[in-house]
């Protein structure tokens, strides 16, 4: 919301970033659960006086925001999803402080995964995984909600069933056409839920944590295809579209999907020598490189989405 200040349009927000918090839950049967979250908070509030009149009386201190993260984590006596914690925080700031009319909470979850020893899940042992669960929650004082979840660093690779043909060729083109190549990417995905108010989100415990796992399974399954025969990819663009479309078709409470899928190149290696000429490798030895790499991204949403 813009304010008129000294003849100018003025917009402002303030918050606290990179608040790291870990929460352990211990069940009565001895099994432990842990999450580690990196929390960023941004408040839109009526505190213009702090900027133009040196009056801090309407400011929620960023140190207070940090302490609130720890206090609210302590209050969560039952295990909950990162989305539910973000909603809880945002709802607190918009309801507890009269000056705050919108709260934006972004959280990245570190991927601690339970380990198995001798084929048995360990009660309190964890290892660090790879991809990260993300969320962004925007809550207004009215209770209006925008809820987005996502995944970062989802590394996928298949050694065949990929090609790239029929693209524009001109005097700058050196890339050969092929129907046989490695397809590798590191997916950054985000999906917007259709829930429009805090009161409308599912009350089922860990609903969003389960949906996150389900979406990851759908993204990877669409990328790879069936275990035996796989699925052919004519381009990263085509595979990206199929992945996004499958998510929307599978989950009716998701209104849009955004995917970023860099094309991480595996270049076939051919060696030349004075004695033997060219030694050509047949799709078995490659030079992996991500500098430079192709950059492909798109957003797919339903017609009725209000995004």
From TrEMBL:
<feature type="active site" description="Charge relay system">
    <location>
        <position position="265"/>
    </location>
</feature>
<feature type="binding site">
    <location>
        <position position="263"/>
    </location>
    <ligand>
        <name>urate</name>
    </ligand>
</feature>
<keyword id="KW-0576">Peroxisome</keyword>
<feature type="binding site">
    <location>
        <position position="181"/>
    </location>
    <ligand>
        <name>urate</name>
    </ligand>
</feature>
<feature type="binding site">
    <location>
        <position position="62"/>
    </location>
    <ligand>
        <name>urate</name>
    </ligand>
</feature>
<dbReference type="Pfam" id="PF01014">
    <property type="entry name" value="Uricase"/>
</dbReference>
<feature type="binding site">
    <location>
        <position position="236"/>
    </location>
    <ligand>
        <name>5-hydroxyisourate</name>
    </ligand>
</feature>
<dbReference type="InterPro" id="IPR002042">
    <property type="entry name" value="Uricase"/>
</dbReference>
<feature type="binding site">
    <location>
        <position position="263"/>
    </location>
    <ligand>
        <name>O2</name>
    </ligand>
</feature>
<dbReference type="GO" id="GO:0005777">
    <property type="term" value="C:peroxisome"/>
</dbReference>
<dbReference type="GO" id="GO:0006145">
    <property type="term" value="P:purine nucleobase catabolic process"/>
</dbReference>
<feature type="binding site">
    <location>
        <position position="181"/>
    </location>
    <ligand>
        <name>5-hydroxyisourate</name>
    </ligand>
</feature>
<feature type="binding site">
    <location>
        <position position="263"/>
    </location>
    <ligand>
        <name>5-hydroxyisourate</name>
    </ligand>
</feature>
<feature type="binding site">
    <location>
        <position position="62"/>
    </location>
    <ligand>
        <name>O2</name>
    </ligand>
</feature>
<feature type="binding site">
    <location>
        <position position="236"/>
    </location>
    <ligand>
        <name>urate</name>
    </ligand>
</feature>
<feature type="binding site">
    <location>
        <position position="63"/>
    </location>
    <ligand>
        <name>urate</name>
    </ligand>
</feature>
<dbReference type="GO" id="GO:0004846">
    <property type="term" value="F:urate oxidase activity"/>
</dbReference>
<comment type="pathway">
    <text>Purine metabolism; urate degradation; (S)-allantoin from urate: step 1/3.</text>
</comment>
<feature type="binding site">
    <location>
        <position position="62"/>
    </location>
    <ligand>
        <name>5-hydroxyisourate</name>
    </ligand>
</feature>
<dbReference type="InterPro" id="IPR019842">
    <property type="entry name" value="Uricase_CS"/>
</dbReference>
<feature type="binding site">
    <location>
        <position position="237"/>
    </location>
    <ligand>
        <name>urate</name>
    </ligand>
</feature>
<feature type="binding site">
    <location>
        <position position="164"/>
    </location>
    <ligand>
        <name>5-hydroxyisourate</name>
    </ligand>
</feature>
<protein>
    <recommendedName>
        <fullName>Uricase</fullName>
        <ecNumber>1.7.3.3</ecNumber>
    </recommendedName>
</protein>
<comment type="similarity">
    <text>Belongs to the uricase family.</text>
</comment>
<feature type="active site" description="Charge relay system">
    <location>
        <position position="62"/>
    </location>
</feature>
<keyword id="KW-0560">Oxidoreductase</keyword>
<feature type="binding site">
    <location>
        <position position="63"/>
    </location>
    <ligand>
        <name>5-hydroxyisourate</name>
    </ligand>
</feature>
<feature type="active site" description="Charge relay system">
    <location>
        <position position="16"/>
    </location>
</feature>
<comment type="function">
    <text>Catalyzes the oxidation of uric acid to 5-hydroxyisourate, which is further processed to form (S)-allantoin.</text>
</comment>
<feature type="binding site">
    <location>
        <position position="164"/>
    </location>
    <ligand>
        <name>urate</name>
    </ligand>
</feature>
<dbReference type="GO" id="GO:0019628">
    <property type="term" value="P:urate catabolic process"/>
</dbReference>
<feature type="binding site">
    <location>
        <position position="237"/>
    </location>
    <ligand>
        <name>5-hydroxyisourate</name>
    </ligand>
</feature>
<keyword id="KW-0659">Purine metabolism</keyword>
């Amino acid at each position: 919301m813009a304010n008129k200040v000294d003849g100018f349009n003025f917009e402002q927000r303030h918050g606290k970033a990179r608040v790291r918090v870990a929460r352990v839950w211990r069940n009565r049967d001895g099994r432990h659960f842990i999450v580690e979250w990196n929390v960023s908070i941004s408040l839109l509030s009526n505190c213009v006086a702090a900027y133009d009149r040196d009056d801090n009386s309407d400011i929620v201190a960023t140190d207070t925001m940090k302490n609130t993260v720890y206090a609210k984590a302590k209050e969560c006596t039952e295990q909950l999803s990162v989305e539910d914690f973000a909603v809880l925080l945002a709802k607190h700031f918009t309801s507890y402080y009269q000056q705050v009319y919108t709260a934006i909470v972004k959280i990245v979850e570190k991927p601690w995964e339970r380990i198995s020893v001798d084929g048995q899940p360990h009660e309190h042992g964890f290892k660090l995984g790879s991809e990260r669960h993300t969320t962004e929650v925007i809550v207004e004082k009215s209770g209006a909600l925008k809820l987005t979840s996502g995944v970062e660093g989802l590394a996928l690779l298949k050694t065949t069933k990929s090609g790239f043909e029929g693209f524009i060729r001109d005097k700058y083109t050196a890339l050969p056409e092929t129907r046989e190549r490695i397809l590798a990417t590191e997916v950054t995905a985000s999906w917007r839920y259709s829930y429009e108010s805090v009161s409308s989100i599912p009350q089922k415990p860990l609903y969003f944590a389960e949906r996150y796992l389900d979406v990851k399974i759908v993204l990877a399954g669409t990328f790879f295809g069936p275990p035996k025969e796989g699925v052919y990819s004519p381009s990263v663009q085509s595979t990206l579209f199929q992945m996004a479309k499958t998510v929307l078709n599978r989950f009716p409470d998701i209104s849009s999907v955004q995917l970023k899928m860099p094309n991480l190149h595996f270049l076939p290696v051919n060696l030349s020598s004075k004695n033997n000429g060219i030694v050509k490798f047949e799709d078995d030895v490659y030079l992996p490189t991500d500098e430079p790499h192709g950059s492909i991204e798109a957003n797919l949403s339903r017609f009725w989405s209000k995004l």
